Amino acid sequence: MDRVAIVGASMTPFGDREGEWLRDLLAEAGAACLDDAGVAADAVDHLYVSNMASGELEGQTGAPNMLAHDLAAQPAYTARIDQTSSSGGAGIYAAWQSVASEASEMTLLVGGEKMTHKTTGEATDVIASLTHPVEYKHGVTLPSFAGLTARLYLDEYDAPRESLGKVAVKNHRNGVDNPKAQFRKAVDLDTVLDSPIVADPLRLYDFCPITDGSAALLFCPESVAREITDEYVVVSGVAGATDTHVVHERADPTTMRGVVESSDQAYEMADRSPEDVDFAELHDMFTILEFLQFEDLGFAEKGEGWKAIEEGRTERDGDLPINTSGGLKSKGHPLGASGVAQAVEVYEQLLGEAGDRQLDDPEVGLACNVGGFGNCVTTTILETPEAE
Amino acid sequence: MDRVAIVGASMTPFGDREGEWLRDLLAEAGAACLDDAGVAADAVDHLYVSNMASGELEGQTGAPNMLAHDLAAQPAYTARIDQTSSSGGAGIYAAWQSVASEASEMTLLVGGEKMTHKTTGEATDVIASLTHPVEYKHGVTLPSFAGLTARLYLDEYDAPRESLGKVAVKNHRNGVDNPKAQFRKAVDLDTVLDSPIVADPLRLYDFCPITDGSAALLFCPESVAREITDEYVVVSGVAGATDTHVVHERADPTTMRGVVESSDQAYEMADRSPEDVDFAELHDMFTILEFLQFEDLGFAEKGEGWKAIEEGRTERDGDLPINTSGGLKSKGHPLGASGVAQAVEVYEQLLGEAGDRQLDDPEVGLACNVGGFGNCVTTTILETPEAE
């Protein structure tokens, strides 16, 4: 079977895009992606929009039809893919299926969310609507799960609180070199550790911000990719999996089964193991999540993930750089865009287009996009065409 | 390539499901579908939910994760597919892609919507949020498009107003024989023609109701279907297409390009022509839409669709029965469920399970699901395995 290739990628600047709406952001990223690939809008036959909550946040639905209109991509088929905070990863999976099933020869995926026009309370309330009603009723929202899990992790595995803070420091430092990041500001460990408490032991700098933004990817069969460019990557593995929807039903809350299951499937599909991965974008909505994913993706034994940051392994000059883009932490987290933007970073790194963040000739990159508190997860592995 | 089969189908009673929520309805339809197929929940590897607006209507998101929880289907991958009123058809296309790409060996699709707890005004306002903002601002909502288009159609093609009324009469009569329909009440032509005006020339009985309900289908490769049952159908064609998002930009508002394009693709995929279709479920959200789809699917020349109802061709004993289920008109229209429920009717007719509505050994059935005012459309062709 022909492999599925990605021939274009783009993202808008992330941050506060006052005066613009989801529609504007999607069109900006979508047009830039087509431009990046040198592909005309009328060549697109499938158009997916990853978005969690435009109806709730803006009172506007039908975003896929609007985007088909704004790009002049009719009669391309369109649909919206929602998997809460992992909608972007789910969109990648939908786009892959669309090409792999031979339904499509050119699929454009655009993820986006417009959030900053709401107060933080309003925006987080929309996010909290994804939790099980019994959790929401008792006030156990995603940040409080993060606090509880961080406390358990630190206790269970004898990890220092500082290790979590160092994740924020690293990802902020990477964000400085990402011109599209929401925060291009380095922070030191004391700033993180002294920031206001949100959910003990986690503090303000352990959390990602509320963000507006959009990101896009263009998919086609590898045979088509070869005809139009020699600058493309292949999707060698992609899979998704769910964990319990009620977080307290998990046998071990420090293990994210959705990460384990989806990455097992993605590795098998790609015929890869964790050792083959040169770098990864992880879903650091909360700093603690970077450790959990690092372990559950097989990069470290359970309880040992925190040592990677202490040893510098996940820095840009380490052996397994994590979140070279700045991560959700400093790049920002426009829900439906985030999973797509993760893959945009992997694409740019693999093609040597990552500017000041560029790694040294990586061949295999991974993106892990987490919905809810690991309720649903997608893992994607991208490679250069000739990766060994 | 292995064909994609449907091995189970179900729908909840449609109507006013007071005291129940989307979550309850999805779980009811999903469990009944698995039961119909004799397949255990843990055999499901992909689980799609077709739903337009649970966040807007109920303040609850994350329905796919909730359903995976309620059916105990973890770690199955889940996502929500939204294409406004054609979310169900988009779900069928997603499920087909998932099996056809060999990502899945068993995909459960459950469509649903909970609407009746809202006032009609609140519910229709959520639906109207799918229109282009410039249309919404001027008060041109879906019912008013229907009125304008009906007026144009009647004038242009010299069709009698009564022909539209007869669509309502036929579909209500079919609904009497559908135990799951919202309205099991025959109406006569005078009742339709004398009902209150909604959007001239259309009256109350030209419109579908606000409905709660859910419907489900179970997909797998035909090779797997053969192992578990001899009662299955195959998806021989499925495709979707968009039309302009701004309705007044259409060259001819009585032609739905999304129907033309998606059915052309679906016929080609199935190696079928309109003449091969034995019966169809069309998206009669408004009576006028049944004529437009009838023509744009190639069942009649443009402007001749209204003659089919006058000649009795679309009745259950006609040569091309339309909406044997009662259609959206009398069965009801829970947005995300409707496209799935159309295919449930086709499945039951093909397998001889349609009870008092049963047609005489049909082999090829078609379902056309319309989003917005034709902004996005999916067409699905189902067949018995041995259809010639």
From TrEMBL, chains A, B:
Pfam families: Thiolase_C_1, Thiolase_N. Residues 4-223 form the Thiolase N-terminal domain. One of its GO terms (biological process) is isoprenoid biosynthetic process. Residues 240-384 form the Thiolase C-terminal domain. Residues 310-333 are annotated as: Disordered. The keyword Metal-binding does not apply. InterPro entries: Thiolase, Thiolase-like, Thiolase_C_2, Thiolase_N. This is Thiolase family protein. It comes from Halolamina salina.
